[in-house]
From TrEMBL:
This is Transcriptional regulator. InterPro entries: ATPase_NBD, HTH_MarR-typ, ROK, ROK_cs, WH-like_DNA-bd_sf, WH_DNA-bd_sf. The lineage of its organism: Bacteria, Bacillati, Actinomycetota, Actinomycetes, Micrococcales. It comes from the Bacteria. Signal peptide: none annotated. Belongs to the ROK (NagC/XylR) family. Residues 3-51 form the HTH marR-type domain. SUPFAM superfamilies: Actin-like ATPase domain (SSF53067), Winged helix' DNA-binding domain (SSF46785).
Length: 393
């Protein structure tokens, strides 16, 4: 059972019973014994809407851990977790639009120091730090490419800059790529029988925020393409004479389906306060017809582009993430309809589309997973995963 906890991270007693084949009563007795010996810790959680006991390995002094930093256009998240997938601490802070790299990196460094103090962690035990950026990173130069969500960051030698500022080994990665890694390492979508026989997971993670980008895991490996830039879904053209996009093209998916576009559409010509993503989510769930139409049109356009992706790559699972997660089925259903309309029926029938279960943490968790993967040489592809609940702290 200790091995199951090490492999799959914090698990409910029911998951442990399913994963190990032990009876519920035996698992319960073992947990009590391990708890008395200080090997595990327990906390109350909910699983499928019911109260459950979440069991995790106790952390001991000197246990090492990874740090994941997710830099968004409007937020900054710093998170620490162990190789046993236990989240040790987390801090989130809003960022002003147009934030500068120097200020944000200094803020991340302060948040990490605060997290270490709060969770009583030693900086010397950090294995490494993964950093997610909402933009394509050109592997030839290690710099953020042009036409991105953070124009102020273009051309910076980010990895060197971050390594110096944080005083840690740092690996910088596109945020959607990290989301894809997190979904196979932490998510609920264990590898299928077919995939297990044919070499690994086939999953696409689509981050829908101020921009739209995808991380592609093919055959259990992250697909990086020729220069490290892949999954630029937001710049696939969907309307020939549409608005000019920040990339310089016209009618890109981002100009009709990003969160920024949806918010722009919410109050045309109204001088009131600018709507936020929280307003969009609240009005959509309240059944506001105009908001529902905005969400539906965005979903259909995203589904149309994903139809091409599915025809070409044949993923088993497409996971949607980003600040749109609380829209749930309101968005997922229209993406499904778009994909069904614009892909081969047999491909559409074989492709699952779901909302991420990682609660906006996918990018930071993926950053941790990447550090831990590089430190251990383990595959990202999970062993046949039992569900890995993420402890909320
Ligand atoms: Zn574009």
């Amino acid at each position: 059972m200790v091995r199951a906890l090490r492999d799959h991270g914090p698990s409910t007693q029911a998951d442990l019973s399913r994963g190990t084949g032990l009876s519920a009563a035996t698992v319960s007795n073992l947990v009590r014994l391990l708890l008395s010996e200080g090997v595990v810790e327990t906390e109350t959680t909910t699983s499928s809407g019911r109260r459950a006991v979440l069991v995790s390995l106790s952390r001991r002094a000197g246990d090492r851990f990874a740090v994941g930093i997710d830099i968004g256009r409007r937020h900054l998240r710093v998170l620490a977790c162990t190789p046993a997938r236990q989240i040790l601490g987390e801090r989130v802070r809003p960022l002003p639009v147009g934030h500068l790299a120097e200020d944000t990196i200094a803020c991340a460094s302060t948040m990490l120091d605060e997290l270490l103090v709060e969770a009583d962690l030693d900086r010397a035990d950090i294995i490494g730090c993964g950093v997610g950026i909402p933009g394509p990173i050109d592997e030839r130069t290690g710099q953020i490419a042009h036409g991105v969500i953070l124009p102020e960051w273009v051309g910076l030698p980010l990895e060197d800059h971050l390594t110096t500022q944080l005083g840690l080994p740092v690996h910088v990665e596109n945020d959607a790529n990290l989301g894809a890694i997190a979904e196979i390492w932490w998510g609920e979508h264990g590898v299928s029988d077919l995939e297990e026989r044919s070499g690994g997971e086939n999953l696409v993670f689509v981050k829908i925020g101020s921009g739209i980008g995808a991380g592609l895991v093919m055959g259990g490996r992250l697909h990086r393409g020729h220069i490290g830039i892949t999954g630029e879904l937001g710049h696939v053209g969907v309307t020939e004479y549409g608005p000019v996009c920040r990339c310089g093209s016209r009618g890109c998916l981002e100009t009709v389906a990003s969160v920024s576009t949806m918010l722009d559409l919410m109050r045309p010509g109204d001088a009131g306060p600018e709507p936020t993503i929280d307003d969009l989510i609240r009005l959509a769930h309240a059944g506001d017809p105009a908001t529902l139409r905005i969400v539906e049109d965005a979903g259909l356009a995203i589904g149309r582009v994903l139809g091409g992706v599915a025809n070409l790559l044949g993923p088993r699972m497409i996971v949607l993430g980003g600040p749109v997660i609380p829209l749930g089925d309101l968005l997922v259903d229209s993406v499904k309809r778009g994909l069904a309309r614009w892909s081969s029926p047999v491909v559409a029938g074989a492709t699952d589309i779901v909302m991420s279960s990682l609660d906006g943490r996918a990018e930071a968790l993926g950053a941790c997973a990447q550090v831990l993967h590089e430190a251990s040489d383990e595959s990202w592809t999970p062993r046949r995963a039992t569900r890995v609940p993420v402890a909320h702290r």
